[in-house]
């Protein structure tokens, strides 16, 4: 493929190939992520129109560890603030001939639109409520390393499903890999049509967690709610916040995940989030660098092959 825009477009074998490559970037002692020169001589531009800590930092680190020239465009200081459109901004950067463009945008579909216009490989770092493919891939790698497999697991995704691109990318990926996916949350935060993805839907958290191998918690995405009814944070925590008592309903060895940023005492108990016997939240962050290295490495290989083929055709 030329771009990584969503999990929707990936075949299960492509997912496995990417995770296997990501695994090779993780040192066995887990203290560091290996370096390589896969992107030597290439330019990577990170363009984040929405806030980010994990995704932006790990894409930057991943590019540097692969030997790319990495530039972070500061949207707050850019001409976007003078009214320049996303497309004009993208075409301006495209004229500087980047090889890889990493884009996060608040509108669903914006990254796909941009990918049609530019001459480089585009990686979706999260677009509105649509997709966050590298998050689902790093979650998959974390699950595979913790559970020893990525199939026939029961995964409970809990919280604000309706506004979450993380939930959407994860349920598509986990479904493709033949897992059982349960979605747990208040009906007002459950999107219409989730049944078409083959998920089971629960309002009662304890019933939804029964026998789960993996419990994935989500943040309330208030910035995307447009006035949707939500309970008070206190009531929400009482009904849908993960704590040690509710976790008893999942399997004894169930792992606890959260993509971050996390709101302690709203969707998850802080002590549980920090419990290294159950929580793999820090491993998720660590795997984010390896997965983003693998994604950019594979796209760079495709880019080099396409350029090689074009050069051969031109001669
Ligand atoms: N999980 C995630 O996308 O985090 P950031 O918003 O900090 O990048």
From TrEMBL:
Chain positions recorded as carbamoyl phosphate binding sites: 54-55, 104, 132, 135, 260-261
Keyword presence, Transferase: yes
InterPro entries with a match to the protein in the record: Asp/Orn_carbamoyltranf_P-bd (IPR006132), Asp/Orn_carbamoylTrfase (IPR006130), Asp/Orn_carbamoylTrfase_sf (IPR036901), Asp_carbamoyltransf (IPR002082), Asp_carbamoyltransf_Asp/Orn-bd (IPR006131)
Associated pathway: Pyrimidine metabolism; UMP biosynthesis via de novo pathway; (S)-dihydroorotate from bicarbonate: step 2/3
Domain Aspartate/ornithine carbamoyltransferase Asp/Orn-binding intervals: 153-298
Substrates-to-products reaction catalysed: carbamoyl phosphate + L-aspartate = N-carbamoyl-L-aspartate + phosphate + H(+)
EC assignment: 2.1.3.2
Residues that bind L-aspartate: 82, 165, 219
Keywords for the protein's UniProt record, in alphabetical order: Pyrimidine biosynthesis, Transferase
Domain Aspartate/ornithine carbamoyltransferase carbamoyl-P binding: 2-144
Domain of life: Bacteria
PROSITE patterns reported in the protein's UniProt record: CARBAMOYLTRANSFERASE
Xref: Gene3D superfamilies: Aspartate/ornithine carbamoyltransferase
GO molecular function: aspartate carbamoyltransferase activity
Family of the protein in this entry: Belongs to the aspartate/ornithine carbamoyltransferase superfamily. ATCase family.
Subunit details: Heterododecamer (2C3:3R2) of six catalytic PyrB chains organized as two trimers (C3), and six regulatory PyrI chains organized as three dimers (R2).
Function: Catalyzes the condensation of carbamoyl phosphate and aspartate to form carbamoyl aspartate and inorganic phosphate, the committed step in the de novo pyrimidine nucleotide biosynthesis pathway. Reversibly catalyzes the transfer of the carbamoyl group from carbamoyl phosphate (CP) to the N(epsilon) atom of ornithine (ORN) to produce L-citrulline.
Protein name (record): Aspartate carbamoyltransferase
Source species of the chain: Plastorhodobacter daqingensis
Gene: pyrB
């Amino acid at each position: 493929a030329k771009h990584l825009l969503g999990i929707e477009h990936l075949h299960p074998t492509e997912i496995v190939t990417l995770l296997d490559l990501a695994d090779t970037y993780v040192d066995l002692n887990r203290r560091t992520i290996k370096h390589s020169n896969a992107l030597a001589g290439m330019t990577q531009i990170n363009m984040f129109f929405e806030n980010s800590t994990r995704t932006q930092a790990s894409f930057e680190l991943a590019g540097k560890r692969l030997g790319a020239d990495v530039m972070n465009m500061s949207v707050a200081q850019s001409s976007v603030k003078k009214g320049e459109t996303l497309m004009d901004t993208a075409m301006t950067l495209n004229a500087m001939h980047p090889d890889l463009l990493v884009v996060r945008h608040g509108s669903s579909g914006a990254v796909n639109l941009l990918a049609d216009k530019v001459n480089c490989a585009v990686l979706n770092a999260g677009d509105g409520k649509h997709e966050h493919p590298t998050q689902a891939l790093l979650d998959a790698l974390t699950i595979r390393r913790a559970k020893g497999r990525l199939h026939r697991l029961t995964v409970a995704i809990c919280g604000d499903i309706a506004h979450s691109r993380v939930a959407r990318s994860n349920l598509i990926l986990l479904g493709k890999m033949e897992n059982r996916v349960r979605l747990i949350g208040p009906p007002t935060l459950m999107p219409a049509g989730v049944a078409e993805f083959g998920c089971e839907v629960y309002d009662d958290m304890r019933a939804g967690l029964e026998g789960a191998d993996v419990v994935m918690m989500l943040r309330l995405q208030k910035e995307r709610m447009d006035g949707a009814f939500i309970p008070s944070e206190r009531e929400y925590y009482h009904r849908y916040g993960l704590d040690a008592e509710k976790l008893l309903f999942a399997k004894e060895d169930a792992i606890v995940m959260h993509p971050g940023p996390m709101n302690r005492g709203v969707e998850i108990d802080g002590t549980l989030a920090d419990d290294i016997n159950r929580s793999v939240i820090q491993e998720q962050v660590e795997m984010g660098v390896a997965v983003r290295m693998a994604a950019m490495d594979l796209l760079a290989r495709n880019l080099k092959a396409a350029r090689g083929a074009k050069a051969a055709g031109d001669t």
